Amino acid sequence: MSKKRGIFGVAGPRVLYFFDGRDSWSSDDDSDSDFEVTPGEAEKLDIKIHKKRIKKCKERINGVAEKDVYGKSKLKKMNKEWTSSVSTKKGHGSRICLQNLPPEVLVHIFKFVVKDDNVLPTLCRFSKMCQNFYVAASHPSLWKKVDLSFGWIKSSLDTLKWLVKHRLTQVEELNLGSWDQLKDEGIQIVTESCPTLTSLILFRCKKLTYRSLTLIADNCTKLSALDLSFASGNVLNPPTLRYFIEKRGANLESLTLSGNKLGSFQKTLSSLKDHCPNLRSLDISGCSFFENQNNMTFPIEDLQIAWPKLQILRLNCIECRVPPTTLERQAMSPGFPELEELSLASRVNLQAYNSYGANDEFLSRLLKTSHKLKYLDIRNCRRLSKNALENIPAGNLQHLFMSRCTISEHGGLCRTIEKWQHSLVQLDISWIRDPSMEMEQAMTELAKHGDQSTLSIIDLSGSPVEMNSVRLLLQGCPSLNRVDLSSCRSISRGFKRLYEGKELDELRDNIS
């Protein structure tokens, strides 16, 4: 009997191999270049090739979760946690992947993914991975904080209808900022279909009318935060705004109305004072009013009693004055003990020609008990003396903006920096008229703490700072990552620009 011949000649001795179930087979005959399929084996080979293709497809599907751009590290970590070796009858290991978990478990995992990130486009990408991911990513409990202002989806009424019906039934915080085509019909759909809504942002929605604000007041019973900044002029007419405040003021904690026409300044403040005891944030920056500036007063003591929880107050470009009051009433006032941010920036050079805006008395009465103040903006305030900030009780101010402020012109810059040099993170002293000697002393104060300095951003544009002071500042503040030297009169022309990142490191090396 003749020996059987293989493709390389006479067949050698038969060798037995043992393969672990987790190992892959070595080269098969069907991978050889001269392998020919006999008619009887064609059907078996087709089945074998089909199984290989299915296996490769499954491997690609299982790898999607680890290759996705968004949430890459989180998904990899979760995959490791949920992957385990399970004993089988044959003793081999099998892998449990994320896509094989029940949808309710995936929902719980996805909550950690979208906790700090926007649900879009993360959940949309997850829903394309497999059927289980689609079911889990569509669960309304994941769509509680939704920001639709970035342009991830088309801002149309049909899109909003579909989202409200299939995704936003449990939404709590919704941002529809810059939806130029949003009208009253869209607001009606949202307010009637989202009963759990607590925060609504309608920034720059120009086509809304007063009917939208009425719908919000009537349907959003749990609303605590509303942003209508730079909205349509019709949406905030005085009667409608007053109706909203009276209807929802008890739960209102944050109200942003900047850049709008609000009718009467005094009536607006009076409504907020009488109906918003839980107010924590108020922003009416840049608003215009129908009344004359002579009649615009800011009743500090009355508001301090009405808003004991106030944390953020923004009155930028509001030219008002404080009404006279007795010293006894000032002493009895509780102040704003929870206040953390105060913005009183004025229009450029406006206060040089009138008697309105923040002065020493305004600041002292407003901040008498504000020990928690972290953010203070007094840019362009032209009525503050060099002692204006000395009596402020805040001991750890972090962000200070005093561009074009008269405090520096009266020699108060060094005192101000000496008071908060240990806690300042951001400082704006651009376009001040302080003499170069005062500026050098201020830079010396900032550089005293060395490695313990927390200053990371400083704006010196248009100031009389000299290169020696800049060198001292860079050496004494290692945490600095942004310095603006544009338009500095005493700096060489090649250095007058903004420095950050690698450019700032090069500047340190060049001038050291």
TrEMBL record:
Signal peptide: none annotated. Pfam families: F-box-like, LRR_6. SUPFAM superfamilies: F-box domain, RNI-like. Keywords: Ubl conjugation pathway. The keyword S-adenosyl-L-methionine does not apply. The keyword Aminoacyl-tRNA synthetase does not apply. SMART domains: LRR_CC. Residues 95-146 form the F-box domain. This is F-box/LRR-repeat protein 6-like. The gene is LOC100367231.
